[in-house]
Amino acid sequence: MFRFSEIKKSFLVALWLMFLTFPIMVIRVNTIYKTIEWRWERMFMVGIGAFFLSFLWRYLHKKKEAGEKKAEEAGTLPLAQRLIKNRQFSIPAAIGLGIFIIAFPFIFSMYQTNIMTTALIYVVVGLGLNIVVGLAGLLDLGYVAFYAVGAYSYALLNHHFGLGFWAALPIGATFAFLFGVILGFPVLRLRGDYLAIVTLGFGEIIRLILENWNAFSFGPSGIANIPRPGFFGMDLSLSQSITYVYFLMIGMAIFTIFVVKRLQDSRLGRAWIALREDEVACQAMGIDKTRTKLSAFALGATWAGIGGVVFAAKTTFINPASFTIWESIIILCIVVLGGMGSVLGVIFGALVLILLPEYLRAFSEYRMLIFGATLVTMMVFRPGGIITDVRKTYKFKGLKDKQPTV
Amino acid sequence: MDYFIELFLGGLTRGSIYALIALGYTMVYGIIQLINFAHGEIYMLGAFTALIVAGILTMLGWNQVAILVIASIVAVVYSAAYGFTIEKIAYKPLRQAPRLSALISAIGMSMFLQYYVLLAQTSNFLPFPNLIPDFKFLEPIEHIVRSSEIVIYATTAIVMVLLTGLIKFTKIGKAMRATAQDRDMAMLVGVDVNKVISMTFIVGSATAALGGVLIASHTGQINYYIGFIAGIKAFVAAVLGGIGSMPGAVLGSLVLGMSESFFTGYISSDYEDVFAFLFLVFTLIFRPSGILGRTDTDKV
Fold first, then answer.
1. Looking at CA atoms only, how far is residue A48 from chain B in angstroms?
2. What's the maximum distance between 2 C-alpha atoms anywhere in chain B?
């Protein structure tokens, strides 16, 4: 494998990248104090890194090509699906997981529970986006706008009318749903990539309005003192209420998984997947394109709204800075990394992308850099995500031993 | 009246810069039907490279015009190199993949480049030296139009003419048009499609870098985030003019720049970006093919 030509190729790649990153990585000028900083060591780091990464890059390429051929021949299920199918493994695993989930807030500290709750919010929101991007194939870059609608509906309703969490939850979800329908209706006729840009535009419009319309949203200073969810009118201490929100989110995540699973196999879900694969063929089969797309868009928005209400209740403070385009892209990253259309994948993606940066604080400044690189490498090498969605296939079994009776 | 002229010229400046970026967008889209999300970042990288070069040369005590020329050349070369490399890494492996995959890859690239500059340089705004000399003959009307603005108009016009020439009269231009029309057919008649696509990225990135240097020296400050908004707005302009059409990109940019300038001047400056996005939404809803674009139907 390590032939001379390969080494030469990697060497040239490293040289090229050293040249490319030279000014930005090495030199830093300060035009006010008139100083120049030369950071030569970085150049060698780039060179060495690029040298080895280019080997890895080519190796992954080869593996991907080989993998495609193999998959065509064998048609076996990926590892994750095989594990789930295997009852001897899946039942004890599910029980163990259940115990772990229930025991989690009692074993670990409040801080850990809080982080876990955040991750669970992303699981719910990610599953919502999964309906839009993964199942229906509509790239929505303004998804966080609906999240903002949910969060602000709770915060504002509470501020003006003193509404509680449980009253605000359905209202926030309904508002997000309505927004999804209103925004979706005119733009869903557009082609995929235009749709992405328009939704991005909508997302930014909503954020900018929240930031500038002080009379309505209290501007950049945001809304503070949002109450945590109540539990039958009881007064909860801080740690109790964090545990409560945690279990609330567990329940909500299970509910979401259930709904998405059922939707996936429903008539509507199959229409979404078909629409993702081929629009023209779908229309020829009599599927109402606009309505099907709109239902995906609005359902996704509803889930974002629910996530937003919980987010506002959990953090007790919101401002427009929590709803930037990068938030949308992180959620997109969750869906893409985990596997578009795959429920298990999205859960996995959310846990990895939200928990890892929390525990690897040292790398937290590199978080967005790594997210960006992840999006590119996932698309290049494994567009299906880590846990690829496997569509239901039907095979004719037993034709050989059972002769058809006439 | 003076205020009107000021807004008009300000709009022209914005429009010209948008045009320099939008040309790259529209060329890339025309050839591989990809919204090159990282294009705005190329523009930002151009501005940063120019800042570094200009900073060093200023300290060495070179004269202003020499610095401007050298900084622009280095920025253009580097941005072109970045454009070329990005295409090879993030887009080339995805040519046969669904369009959505390539778009997600482009978004990832854009994010990566922004944070690359943020981490390697700084997250603060950096002051950018004024590289464009003050012209003597402009002194009487200095309060209306600055010399940097004149340079921006002139550069945009020259770049526009050169690019039109490149597309219309050279061999590579012909190959570009052929690839844009039908990539498979172009391949069959012996066009080296990979080379054409690389060339498109190089030319587009170089143009964007020029825009980056000029606007940075006009506004006097840059940070890692300037590429994002500028890129989105240039995209709006390209769509407005009809994506894939070069005169369309310039026309769309001027229309967007002007209307933005008048909107902020007469109505509200808080909602400047909202206005641009609304412009985009309405264009796409009511005339998705843009002003000069042709309508195409889905091919089965």
1. 17
2. 62
Token pair in block for residue A21:
């990153």
The answer to whether A366 faces chain B, any CB pair under 8 Å, is yes
> pLDDT value at position A185?
83
Nearest to A208 among B128, B273, B280 (CB): B273
Q: At what angle do helices B272-286 and A165-187 cross, to 10 degrees?
A: 50
The structure tokens listed for A189 are 């006729």
Instruction: Please name the residue of chain A whose CA is at the shortest distance from the CA of residue B44.
Output: A24
- On whether any CB of chain B is under 8 Å from the CB of A215, the answer is no
A317-371 pLDDT, tens digit per residue, is 888 888 888 888 889 888 888 888 888 888 888 888 888 877 777 777 788 888 8
CA distances, B221 to each of A134, B51, B125, B150, B207 (Å): 41, 10, 6, 19, 20
- Does any CB of chain B come closer than 8 Å to the CB of residue A28? yes
Surface-to-core class of residue A324, CB atoms within 10 Å of its CB (0-12 exposed, 13-18 middle, 19+ buried): middle
The pLDDT of residue A175: 93
pLDDT tier for residue A301 given thresholds of 50, 70 and 90: very high
- Is residue A114 classed as helix, strand or coil in its secondary structure? helix
Q: Is residue A245 part of a domain?
A: yes
pLDDT digits (tens, 9 = 90+) for A85-143: 777 777 888 888 888 888 777 878 888 888 888 899 999 999 999 999 888 888 888 89
Listed by number, the residues of chain A in 255-274 with a beta carbon closer than 8 Å to a beta carbon of chain B are none
Whether residue A144 is predicted with pLDDT greater than 80 in this model: the reply is yes
Rounded-to-integer distance, Cα B221 and Cα B207, Å: 20
Please report which confidence band the pLDDT of residue A245 belongs to, taking 50, 70 and 90 as the band edges.
confident
Domain boundaries, chain B: 9-286
Q: Which CATH number fits domain B9-286: 1.10.730, 3.10.50, 1.10.3470, 3.40.50?
A: 1.10.3470
Looking at the structure, tell me whether residues A62 and A112 fall in a common domain: no
CA separation for the pair A105, A239 (Å, rounded): 9
The secondary structure element, H or E, covering residue A222 is: none
Token output for B176: 């570009």
Q: Is the pLDDT of residue B216 over 90?
A: no
Q: Has residue A51 got a pLDDT over 90?
A: no
**Same-domain pairing of A26 and A117:** no
Q: Report in angstroms the alpha-carbon separations of B185 from B182, B191, B244.
A: 5, 9, 19
d(CA B246, CA B1): 33
Collapse the DSSP code of A28 into the 3-class scheme (helix H, G, I; strand E, B; otherwise coil) and give the result: strand
In order, the DSSP letters of A47-77 are HHHHHHHHHHHHHHHHHHHHHHHHHHHH-PP
Same domain, A27 and A118: no
Higher pLDDT, A163 or B110: B110
| pLDDT attached to residue B138 | 67
Residue A142 main-chain phi, psi, to 5 deg: -115, 25
Query: How far is the CA of A98 from the CAs of A103, A205, A354, B88, B228, in angstroms?
Result: 9, 42, 21, 46, 44
pLDDT > 80? residue A2: no
Considering the domain architecture, whether residues A202 and A244 belong to the same structural domain is answered as yes
The pLDDT assigned to B203 comes to 93
Q: How far is B101 from chain A (nearest CA, A)?
A: 6
